[in-house]
From TrEMBL:
Transmembrane segments: none annotated. SUPFAM superfamilies: Eukaryotic type KH-domain (KH-domain type I). One of its GO terms (cellular component) is nucleoplasm. The keyword Glycosyltransferase does not apply. Keywords: Acetylation, Metal-binding, mRNA processing, mRNA splicing, Nucleus, Phosphoprotein, Repressor, RNA-binding, Spliceosome, Transcription, Transcription regulation, Zinc, Zinc-finger. It is found in: Nucleus. GO terms for biological process: mRNA splicing, via spliceosome; regulation of mRNA splicing, via spliceosome. This is Branchpoint-bridging protein. The lineage of its organism: Eukaryota, Metazoa, Chordata, Craniata, Vertebrata. Residues 2-62 form the KHDC4/BBP-like KH-domain type I domain. The keyword Flavoprotein does not apply.
Length: 91
């Protein structure tokens, strides 16, 4: 988990960060940054931890862009975990 490795809190915010139909808070207010371009908000106790988390995020994005879908092991692992969480995993 990147947050544990880097001692940082990472939040994905902006347009497209929340599933359609799930936009906004329960009280009807917009989520912070909801009207901004898609981005990651990284917070930590030290700048060193922030920089480490940002570098990890950049590496993941670079891998996602440069690696063909059928060869992207991180994507496969994440989709498998999502299917497990949703109860739709087929062994």
């Amino acid at each position: 988990n990147i947050e544990k490795e880097c001692n940082a809190k990472i939040m994905i915010r902006g347009k497209g960060s929340v599933k359609e139909g799930k936009v906004g808070r329960k009280d009807g207010q917009m989520l912070p940054g909801e009207d901004e371009p898609l981005h990651a908000l990284v917070t930590a106790n030290t700048m060193e931890h922030v920089k480490k988390a940002v570098e990890q995020i950049r590496n993941i994005l670079k891998q996602g862009i440069e690696t063909p879908e059928d060869q992207n092991d991180l994507r496969k692992m994440q989709l498998r975990e999502l299917a497990r969480l949703n109860g739709t995993l087929r062994e």
